[in-house]
Automatic annotation (TrEMBL):
PROSITE patterns: ACT. InterPro entries: ACT-like_dom_sf (IPR045865), ACT_dom (IPR002912), Histidinol_P_phosphatase_HisJ (IPR010140), PHP_dom (IPR004013), Pol/histidinol_Pase-like (IPR016195). Its EC number is 3.1.3.15. Pfam families: PHP. It comes from Labilibaculum euxinus. It is an enzyme of class 3 (hydrolase). This is histidinol-phosphatase. It catalyses: L-histidinol phosphate + H2O = L-histidinol + phosphate. PANTHER family: HISTIDINOL PHOSPHATASE-RELATED, HISTIDINOL-PHOSPHATASE. GO terms for biological process: L-histidine biosynthetic process. Pathway: Amino-acid biosynthesis; L-histidine biosynthesis; L-histidine from 5-phospho-alpha-D-ribose 1-diphosphate: step 8/9. Keywords: Amino-acid biosynthesis, Histidine biosynthesis, Hydrolase.
Amino acid sequence: MPQNNIATPEYFIWETHGIHTGTGNDHVKHGVDELDKITELAIAKGHPNIAFIIHTPRLTRYRYAAEKRLGVKFIRGDNAYFNYPNQIEQLKLKYGNRINIRFGIELEWLGPDLGMQWNRSKIFQAQDADFVIGSLHFSREGIPYDGSIEETEELIKLRGGLENYWGGYIEELIEMVDSTWEMIQVVGHIDLPKLFAPIPQPLLELDTSDHFLARRMRFLLEMISEYNLALDVNLAGINKGCGIYPDISILKRAKQLDIPIALGTDTHTLQNLGNHHETGIHYAHDAGYKHYLSFSKCIPEKRPLRNQAFKEEEYKVMNLGIEMLNLRFEDSKQRRIPKFSFGGTFRTFLEHHKNSTSLGEFEAIRIRKGNKSITISNTIPQNQKEKVKGLFSHHKDKPGVLSMIFNALASEEINVETAYLNSNNDGTATAFLTLSGDDDSVHEAVEFVKGTGGDSFIEIRVGDILEMQQLDKNKNYLLEVDGVNLPIAISKQMILSIHNNTAGILLILLSALASQNINVIDLKLGQRGQKGYAILSIEGNAQLAGNILGKLGPQFFETTLLSLNGVE
């Protein structure tokens, strides 16, 4: 975690719809160009996080009146947008040890045809964004909903009245959500037209009204819920005089549907940095919310609205577990809301998480989707003190050494059942393995390693009364995967493998990693019937590691690279 020694404000939001970056010399200024200045201001205020956002460029026919008057065509042009990820990367290099920096895009809905293909291209041009907000600013007629009173009156007249004006907006939002739900995480300012047009009464009576506007808004919210999207609670309306987006009636209906929220100030000037955080927190709380979401690499992080009643460290543990579990799923399934079980001190979460269950005194959080689960804790698990038979190795901590052991064992048709590997941080590592196979074959394998390993091995032996090693000390620990015991200290780069539980299978993975000069610094093995489980911490080029995981063969049922943003 970045180190900022200034105390965090009592009311602080990890924003999603945060600070709009400017367009520099790209025609019409929109947002903050002085990114260094506003980052330094956030650090000075004690903010642990700053979130930037940029509008995607628009098709030419979608222009505000002022842009038409100026003859501007290439709205919020490509130059600023293309440079945006690089700008953020430079900010991270400069300030990343002092503040957490996130960035996302606001995807302009421009219709389902060319506009949809245009938007897909803009998604690809903003690789590695932390979040994507889907927003509707322009009507299908090309007139903006948030331009001016004159433009709003023009569209109301064109559509034949206020109710049809709002009805058209809601239908376009339904179209946007149905078309882009796999591309976005958040639906932006859902009642944006109230900036210049009053909200019709049926939208303020969503629980009772049978008016067509109420019915369509209820359907829109149900769609957002079904697609597991979050709703933008946008504080910019405070400064604009129309109130927070969305209206409290809409937000309460969203809470009834368990739609998560993401908060932001939608800031366009230096002066508005962090404004209205307290107001926004109280507003969401009044609607019934106790939590909100932030995003990292498009993976949701759950955060408490009010820090006084919760421990931030415990939320970090839970978010890390969610991140690890989500990485095991394809993108479309990462949005499915997981189920939770809480134990020990984490049981304080039980009252705040619907349908969660207790783990009793077990100091852990279990997070599950379908038949996949992760159990995580910030307390080091203690090994049993029993003495067991196994193989002990003290060897040089470098790529390929561990695979020598597995190679020798496989040559004697010996399967490794469980493994504990620890890096000693002195250039050496120790490993403890329990094995299947007869004693003579195990000794043959050990002698082979001694004879061929050169100076890589300091000591390697088989014993009947070896004691299990303690885990490396760390901030957080993985305890179980799918209920299989795999206690390991969590590191930034890990690999999860589920494979055939037979001799030589894991050797394939270890050999592949060694071939790319990737070192295994920690390893735990477990098993359930015919399935073997392995969790590895690695050092080396993570991209190379990811590239080889899909090439290991059909004996591997799951191989997941866990590149973890939530690890400090």
